[in-house]
Amino acid sequence: MWWAPVSYTLLCVVTVNLLATAGDVTLTWTSPVYPKLYSNDSSVNPLGRPITEDEDGWLGSLVNIGAMVGPLPFSVIAERFGRKIGLLCIAVPHIIAYLTMAFAKNIYIFYFGRIFGGLAMGGGYSLLPMYIAEISQDSNRGMMSLTLNIFWAIGNFLPYAVGPFTSIMLFNCFLACIPAAFFVTFLVVGVETPYYLAGIGKMDKAEKSLMKLRCLGKEGVQKELESIKAHLKKDDDGHFSDILKRKELRKAFIICIILIVAQESSGSCAITFYLQPIFESAGTNLSADISALIVGVALLISSFIAPFVVDKLGRKLLTVTSCLGMFGSLLMLGIFFYIQDSTAQSTENILWMPIFSLIFFIISFNIGMGCIPWTLCSELFPNNVKQIAASSVSSTCWITTFLITRFFNDMNDHMGRAGTFWFFAATCFASAIFSIIFVPETKGKSFSEIQDMLKYGNPKKKSSSENPSPDIVLNDVKVRTDKNGLK
């Protein structure tokens, strides 16, 4: 059974994914908190006054400013001291952020907590996919990587399930327990990745790490260890300039950057940040709390789809399917708000459309665009520039998210709610076209094979370039040639 050799690998993956949950709680934290901070009831609102629309915008977007910076310090830590130390360090600002906001009485303390939480979240998005990819086998790397999607979804779901029914203080104290649990568990269970250990010349420790991860003896891991050595032997010290100079790395970088920008320009973060306010403005029959909770359940359930099909269907098909599904759902949501805001027709008979559209959007997002860009980022780059690329892509992600969430309300004011969702829909459609043409399929390929695919385009092209001495026929006799002529 495949289960036995990956049992400890799976344990490490599940443990490290607690950090993913802690990070994505930060994204949907605002949805149940906004109604409390807008309240005039001092027993509900610790500020003692309703927040302004400008403060609303900063609470939603400041987390992204922290996330822009987060990849840089934690990447340096992971490169110098190891992936395990880097991940453990990320838990600390998460704990500080949640405890700070639990006892905040001033809007600026909330701002501080949001920035600090964003700092940790940005670091997590940079290191988590890399750690999981480096401890997984080629045959199940896709499935292992996309378990992130499940735990991200749990993080997104928890604020909808807990936040509306607890005080801000209890809510944040509860959230602080998640990174604390990760820190203690991963400190005991987690192992350093064999790729990192081999990369710094500690081959004995790399071998022991592989043996523990695969639950095998020395002989059982030798083939994989040799593959890691061969892959690392190709790499010199990497710099960002190497990504720009080398065609295959430049191609990988452009693909990852475009997919990440497309992921956030789909409106995913804006929708999760403002889910309850969206339902309140739609005036659905269900309360905003219950509607948001239903969408959160859909988000959680749908997150289990991608890990079990990604290594069968492939990254490319799931990405295209995801983009087209998001396009259809956002188009429908835009139509609802257009009828509500710009026509005299009643929406009484179509009040089901907002919740249906958003459930369909969440499911579509979860099966592809929510996770695959991060998986590709961990797969498309060689070890010497992987950290640089991951940090750059992660920072780009959060810059885009900041712009979308900070100006979401402004987009609604100037474009109308229908226009805003149609803009997001157009982005999803363009992303589907881009994915069909440019996104490579990495299913079942080793890191070395992925680099060859990017460099040579296909195996045939590679073999011909590596073997420039063709056979020719002379007087019906096949003769071998070399660069200097006939042999």
Oligomeric state of the chains in view: single chain
Question: Helix tally?
Answer: 24
* Rg: 24 Å
3D shape = globular
Total domain modules: 1
CATH level-four homologous superfamily name:
MFS general substrate transporter like domains
Structural class: mainly alpha
Uncertain regions: pLDDT < 50 for 5+ in a row?
1-6, 459-487
Given this structure, which CATH class is correct? Mainly Alpha
Please estimate the helix content: over 70%
Could you report the average pLDDT, rounded to the nearest whole number? 83
CATH architecture, by name, is Up-down Bundle
Q: How much of the polypeptide forms β-strand, as a percent range?
A: under 5%
Report the strand count: 3
Characterization of the model:
This protein is mainly alpha-helical and 487 residues long. The chain has a single domain, classed as MFS general substrate transporter like domains (Growth Hormone, Chain: A, Up-down Bundle), CATH 1.20.1250.20. 76% of the residues lie in helices and 2% in strands. It contains 24 helices and three strands. The protein has helices spanning 7-28, 30-37, 53-69, 71-81, 83-102, 107-135, 141-162, 168-189, 194-199, 203-214, 218-233, 240-245, 247-265, 268-273, 275-282, 288-302, 305-313, 315-342, 353-366, 372-379, 383-406, 408-438, 447-456, 459-466, and strands at residues 471-474, 477-482, 485-486. The chain has a three-stranded antiparallel sheet with strand order 1-2-3, with no helix packed on it. Helix 1 packs parallel to helix 7 (141-162). The longest helix has 31 residues, at 408-438. The model is unreliable at 1-6 and 459-487 (pLDDT under 50).
